[in-house]
Amino acid sequence: MSSIENDIKINIKNILKNSGECSNKEIADKLSYLKRESIPNAVITIGIGSSSIIAGAVDTLNAIKNYISTKNIKADVIETGNLGFCSEEPVIGVQLPGKNLVLFKRVDAKSVEFIFDAIFSNDIISNKVLCQVHNSLHHPWEDIPYMEDLPFFALQRRNLLRNCGFINPESIYEYIARGGYKSFVKSIINYPCTKVCEIIEESELRGRGGSGFLTGLKWKIALTSEANNKFVICNADESDPGAFTNIILLEGDPHRLIEGIAIASYATGADKAYIYIRSRHNLAYQRLNKAIQDAKELGLLGYDIFNSGVNINIIIKQSPGAYVCGEETALIASLEGKRGMPVTRPPYPAVKGFNGMPTVINNVETLANIPDIIDKGPAWFKNSGTFSSKGTKLFSLGGKVKNCGVVEVPMGISLKDIVFKIGEGVKDDNKFKALLIGGPSGYFVPEHKLNIEIDYEKLRDEGFSIGTGGLVVIDESGCIVEITKFFMEFTARESCGKCIPCREGTKIMSDILHSVTRKPVNGSGHETLERFKGVMQLEGLADVIKNTALCGLGKNAANPLVSSMKWFKEEYEEHIFDRKCYVNVCKQLRCFKIDAENCNGCNICFQKCPEKAIIGTVLQPHFIISNKCTGCGICYDNCKFSAIVVV
Amino acid sequence: MIYDIEVNNRKIKAYRGETILSALQRNGIIVPTLCFMKDLSPTGACRMCVVEVEGEKNLVTACSHTVEEWMKIYTHSLKVINTRKLIIEMLLASHPDECLYCIRNTNCELQKYTAELNVSERRFNNFSERKKNDVSGAGISYEPSKCILCGRCVRVCDEIQGVNTIDFIKRGISTIINPSFSKSISNSNCIYCGQCVRVCPTAALTGKNHIPYVLKNVHKQNTKLVAQCSPAVAISIAEEFGVKAGKDFSGQMVTALKKCGFDAVFDTSVSIDLHIYETAKIIAEKIKNNDKTTLFSSSCPAWVKYAEQSDFDLSRLSIIKSPQQIMATLIKTLYAQNVNIKPENIFSVSISPCLAKKYEAQREEHSQNIYNEVDAVLSVRELARLIKLSGIDFLKCEPAPFDEPFNIRSSASNLYAVSGGEAESILRTVIFMLTGKETKDNTYTKLRGFKDIKEISVKAGIYDINFAVVNGIKNIHKLLDEIKTCKRHYDFVEIMSCSGGCINGGGQPLKTSVEDLKLRTKIIYENDKKDVINKAHKSPFVNDFYNDTLNRLQLVTSFDELFKTSYKYKKVLN
Description:
The structure holds 2 protein chains of 2 kinds. Chain A is globular and about 90 Å long. In chain A, helix 9 packs across helix 16 (about 365-375), helix 12 (about 245-250) crosses helix 13 (about 255-270) and helix 13 (about 255-270) crosses helix 16. Chain A is of the alpha/beta class. A 5-stranded mixed sheet of chain A has the order 2-1-3-4-5, with helices on one face. In chain A, strands 11-10-14-12-13 form a 5-stranded mixed sheet, with helices on both faces. In chain A, a hairpin with a 5-residue loop joins strand 10 and strand 11 (about 405-410). Chain A has 5 domains: about 1-150, Glutaredoxin; about 180-385, Rossmann fold; about 390-475, Ubiquitin-like (UB roll) (Roll), CATH 3.10.20.600; about 480-580, de novo design (two linked rop proteins) (Up-down Bundle); about 590-645, Alpha-Beta Plaits (2-Layer Sandwich), CATH 3.30.70.20. Helices cover about 40% and strands about 15% of the residues of chain A. The longest helix of chain A has 24 residues, at about 525-550. By secondary structure, chain B is an alpha/beta fold. Chain B has 3 domains: about 1-75, Roll (Ubiquitin-like (UB roll)), CATH 3.10.20.740; about 140-210, Alpha-Beta Plaits (2-Layer Sandwich), CATH 3.30.70; about 210-565, Rossmann fold (3-Layer(aba) Sandwich), CATH 3.40.50. Chain B is built from 19 helices and 17 strands. Chain B has a 5-stranded mixed sheet, sandwiched between helices. In chain B, strands 11-10-13-14 form a 4-stranded parallel sheet, with helices on both faces. Classes of the chains: A alpha/beta, B alpha/beta. The interface between A and B is large, with 36 and 39 residues.
């Protein structure tokens, strides 16, 4: 193995300058080995990433290693990133020489043995298999669906994700073997800076962070701003609850991002780039760090890259973790070592940003798109997508949906297709209620609006926005008011405290929502009046906050509230007028009653009640004092005789 | 370039590159602001200055947006007014309804806008716990529940003073302004310059209140209540009673203080003369011996604290006590002797334009003797409140002279109130000491004005005298760097922590504009020009002091105790 790496290292310029093709037969063979087109031994891949580690992938990995050493099988075990199919993790792949790669799903430590026992005798455990991956050089397995045939993958167009789950993210050679870094080398050798900006502008790539600004235009502004220093910052501070697209990319294919950043730095004339990443994304940090080190070692980063006179250094900055630091000006402040607070714009960072210098801030997904656009040209990129939104978009699909995970779909696909085709509908065949698009500053989409196409303009016209690409499916058991309250509390907590509308307004709104989702404390008429008054203010507050808040966090803070009040008004009315949460989610609105016929006086509820709201003597039916009951439900959970009922 | 923009359907003139707010203000359109501060970076935090710009989706903040030629602006449309009103209501949601008991009642900016925007009921309530007050600081108290987080204090501390004591801490509704690590002010590197108090729109930051201590000692048996008044007080006290800046009210002040119950009122300028004389002696000696070290003034207590907590070489700091402390010692020795009373039975109050003087009074060097040198320090604002409390019509007071024995001063001493004044008055005496001749022209314009750093080189006989003046503590590093790299040599450096000097001190009236500062400066220099005795060494008191009084005094105290102090490094949170 090490000799392969050495050979590539020596021939790196040759390989990359000739667009990944290599005239040297020996090298070509080695590259094809790295691409796993021809392998001498069996290769076992296991996705190790945040989502699979939660599902127990580390145990599975140990079990695999154990199996191989005890059975004395000659096989390479390769840790890859995650495939993105989170609900089926841990996913492992087995490729036997000459055969197609087979992926297995939900492989826990226990099932490793019988899966491997079977496959090494050319048999497949059918209930564990996920799919096989098509490769014309290999023989297919019979009766095993291809990846493209699975509903989860069928409508996806995996460009950014195509390496995720297949290559070793810690190996720069595997990335190079699959065509990596040739776009970067092509740019610095063949194109002047302006040309690269033009290519990106022509591709009509728009920022994937949410606002959808034209990336090429942003670069051009930075390039034409005169300054001694320029910077590129990659915003990898993904922290919305329910968004995990960037993390899959970072952990699965870090070199794609590094290449994208390198091209962006070259195109804008920056010699220093920063990656701003959450400190809690430790695995991604380590893999990025390794990637940068490896790229430096091969001379792809650093000083005078490939004798072109181009200097690019990438520095990773671990962020302490504040939601507002995803906002670009707050991010810059944080990077400068100041408190992460947004500042007024204009001037925009592309004119005056980090340390007062022109700074391009792009999202991970935006930058990951760059290498392919340079490689295949803007026309290829514009092939997919709609009139105003080109290319593909990553979404993290979660919530009460059958197939969870990160999906890459072409722009223009409808939300319905994502939820009901890719996601295969609602879990447990429950009824669909709403789709939350864009996390805590996103919108609730009701069922009749699901036909809407993914497109910056079309979504905006309907009053929605792509946001960070989080899609959370809410089924009939979810309470919209409760979820809205959760997000309102989230933004109130994460507000930086600078501008009044955001700091005070979000707190007031979450207080009002709080009063809606609980019983009156003392039942006085005054409190009821206050509660009604509060509800009446909500819309006005939301309007002012949207209009006046300093940054995106505040401007969008009221989005979930406004959209839920628009589409799910009846649910609010139930909470407000009936004081009932009909799906029994809002605990503080629940009322319990003891059914005297079923109660045998076991006394357990009496003992468990934290509020001492239950009275009764042993072996006699008990009673709940409704005034004292807070609706916690402990009695309900503990009653073995179903004597406690919700009223 | 000038162009016309349309505001409220009328054309107004605007300069290219200026903010909307500045164009509006120049044209007489008032837009409310809470966080805006002239000459400091706009933060856009309060959102009160929002205006409607045609074509813009959201309202824009006038303080941070530059005007464009195409703009059509509506500053008081219904939408804008309702928005501003709601923003104020949001602020009030977490603001305590304590106006009646508040020190800033009737001069609070939040209160003003609440009234202006016709807010008549409390629509929102933020049920959060009341944040803890910080009363640990010697000169400044912080009450976070009244803080509206406009950030003016943070910017003043950072951008004007360069001390950086306070910043925002925590997030969301728990955001608070605190020194490092949320520690108390007493542990911080706060120098008590009080500039933050001056800019605070509410009563979140206030000067320490010493009025109760004074009141306790009014007409108390066996106790003499004595006041000393700093020269920067007499020229600004009347502003608190509605008089335009630029008039000297020292006579009325003496009468008012007497009416308040003070037994004697002295002029701190008298001890300033002694301070000038002693400092000049050191400098003249240094110059004669060709000693090339620099002497740094120590009369600004905020600067002294700043030096003590930095890596500054304290041996270069003048060991002469500040005028306030010299006078205090004189009161408790000479005056006590004169009226035959024990020093403990004198309650000595210093009236000063400074909050750091409150800190200086309780420094261990000055308070751990048998008695406190100074028992209480009142700021100009506190003095005005005391006068009002005592039911005195200040403007109708008959002027009266200061009390003997501390009533004769030179006009040079009054220059201490402005930046450069200390250097100028010392210079006059140093020249005399070096040459033995009186100079005719005593005006040194190079030392006057509001420049950051002022320098002067004077030839006195065979000697060269080099003085420098640092105006505002932020500029001290510029000068220190210059000295370190040996580019310049100075015999004496005057440092005032507040820009402009004591006339702009933290204890001065809150609404002090640049215009006011100019008028205050003007009256001081005018008085100096008129006065016959314009040098410290010519003051009869000084002559008398060294010929006679000092010998008498040395029976009860020593020369060192009277004039000298010491400094030591302080560990603070930076």
